[in-house]
Amino acid sequence: xxxEIKIRIFSTxxxxxxxxxxxxxxxxxxxxxxxxxxxNKEAAKEMIEKSGQMGVPVxxxxxxxxxxxxxxxxxxxxxxxx
Amino acid sequence: MYDxxxxxxxxxxxxxxxxxxxxxxxxxxxxxxxxGQMSYASLIENYPGFxxxxxxxxxxxxxxHLKKNTLDIKEDLDIKEIKIEKKGKTIKxxxxxxxxxxxVVIIATGRVPKKLNISNEEKFxxxxxxYCATCDAPLFRDKEVVVVGGSNAGLEIALELSTYVxxxxxxxxxPKLKANEYLQEKIKKISKIKVIINALVKEFKGDKFIEGLIxxxxxxxxxxxxxxxxxxxxxxxxxxxxxxxxxVKLNRQGEIKIDSKxxxxxxxxxxxxxxxxxxxxQIVIAAGEGAKAALNAYDYIKKIKIRxxxx
Lengths: 82, 311
Fold this sequence. Notes:
The structure holds two protein chains of two kinds. By secondary structure, chain A is of the alpha+beta class. Chain A has one domain: Glutaredoxin. Helix content of chain A is about 40%, strand content about 20%. A four-stranded mixed sheet of chain A has the order 2-1-3-4, sandwiched between helices. In chain A, a hairpin with a 2-residue loop joins strand 3 and strand 4. Chain A is globular and about 35 Å long. The mean pLDDT of chain A is about 90. Chain B folds into two domains: about 1-110 and about 235-310, FAD/NAD(P)-binding domain (3-Layer(bba) Sandwich); about 115-235, FAD/NAD(P)-binding domain (3-Layer(bba) Sandwich). Chain B is about 25% helix and about 30% strand. Chain B is built from six helices and 19 strands. In chain B, the strands form five sheets. In chain B, strands 1, 2, 5, 6, 7, 8 and 19 form a seven-stranded mixed sheet that branches. In chain B, helix 1 runs parallel beside helix 2. The interface of A and B includes residues 16, 38, 41, 53 and 68 of A.
């Protein structure tokens, strides 16, 4: 199942919640595309348009947008049981 | 049953954890997240041993150091209640994932940023209003922004933003900036930063995102509007006391009252760091207070053990 899931994380390098989110996914064995919106202006624009948010982190999991480190929602989409 | 439960994840809690573990206390550390306010600070230049380090990097160093020690850690956990049981001999910490008991608890829950409490503030959080400049600054590239607050935190945020944004207005409620001279000198040199004094923020404007802000000039009482796409709030913080407000005595500012041995009004509850009424909230002070609280908690636990044996 895991290989079919596409995860993209929009983040900046100096944001504590972004780091926590990425570490959590790593710990649970999920791979993700790490997009640094501080360097990639186009990606920043895409993130703001898709999420309606000017804050990081934003995740896109199989097309679904998750704002912040919303563990409950991420667990639900990825089927993580704690 | 633990000897000690430490609540918090900032410098006071981490340092308490290291010291408690080295004293071989059976210790549990519980927190919602690591680093506390430290992890949101941009550059830290006053922690001895590190001439210049990112808040998040220092926070990571604290945590990895702590984890080299022997203690139980529950991360990412919300605590519901702290209860004194068995006539004050035991403290029960109720969390969303069960209860934990200890002889002694150290509260090191730090401080949380204050909000402006303007009616539509909540609506625009993440939509132009940010409480984390270090996270979100790059998203405001070439935009005009306001920083509310003229203390050290406000000026540090303005400096951080200045590499990205085109214009910064620092709105100060009082007649002058409160920040230290060093920071004031730094911002004076940056032409895109404008300081507006005697300004009371009244209203946020915008549809989906922030488009502007209305403030009242306290001298003329006139309402003035500025068009900005971002608002960073740095009007200080308040002690994160909600867990213990009915358990220990607080001062008028909501800080936990402690004595020189980190004792609160409840004998087996100690407190350390920014949540307490100590003067000056600094990382190096919080770390020292955490160590002190752990050592004092150790002395207390030792005394109870001796008392039990002699009975």
